[in-house]
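Much of the work behind modern protein science is quiet bookkeeping, done one molecule at a time. The protein below has been through that process, and both of its lines are reproduced in full.
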Amino acid sequence: MEPDKSKKILLRLPSSLWEELAAWAADDIRSINGQIEYLLTECVKQRKKKKKQETE
């Protein structure tokens, strides 16, 4: 995704989830924002793959 085409959103998370994401991001050497984007991207890929399999 190109930086100038990125959308900004406000995301409220419970502090316990934030802490888990921060630890996970640190393990993967990513920022928390980068980790959230990575996880959402992977979920979208899995959803598309599942939908494709269902239609075959």
The CA atoms of residues 3 and 34 lie 13 Å apart.
